[in-house]
Amino acid sequence: MGKYRTPKASLDISRRIFLHRSAVMLGGVLLAGPALAAKLGCRPTASDILGPFYRFGAPFRARLAGPDELGDRLVLTGTVFGSDCRTPLPGALIEVWQANHAGLYDTNKPGNFTEVTSFHLRGMLYTNEKGQYEVETIMPGRYPVPPNLPGLEKYAGLTRPAHIHMRVMESLHIPLTMQLYFKGDPFIANDPWAGKKPSLAIDLKQDGKLRRGVFDVVLARGL
Question: What CATH number labels 73-218?
Fold first, then answer.
């Protein structure tokens, strides 16, 4: 009996099956690649405390500091992304508030207060169609934690590093509250909040009379 030979038709069928399965497998890898990369390397931006000086109802403005405001001028820019770290989120609402150059907020009464009607170094803005934002302000000053704050009594008198508060909200994602710190600030290491959130400390670059910082935000997907 001679050697058995696979008919050409059978070889063609086997080849087509192999190519089809290979294409399916390759397609699965290509589809899973970004998801796998996102799972391994993409993380939502770390959250932080709201702090005692938050006020609701700040006006819509991206320029927090007027021309006569004391302090080094600062411009913050960035992009707000969805949970995949790639999809920009247009129309995300950002609230920003901070102390002035001397470490003072627009009222010296901590808490959710309403007795002051003006808003100083506070504002709200929406990201543009590319999910980008830009805030013009000044470098905030450091300040000691006020005494007798509920839950924070043990930190009274502790000098906080310079920081800017931000809240970011978008309808399909979980709202994020955070504080932006600045690398090189000597008070970060011993701060009970900043010291545990190194990802929230940003580099600043000098651009003439301006300092510029870039911080991208990643929101976690809501249920």
Answer: 2.60.130.10
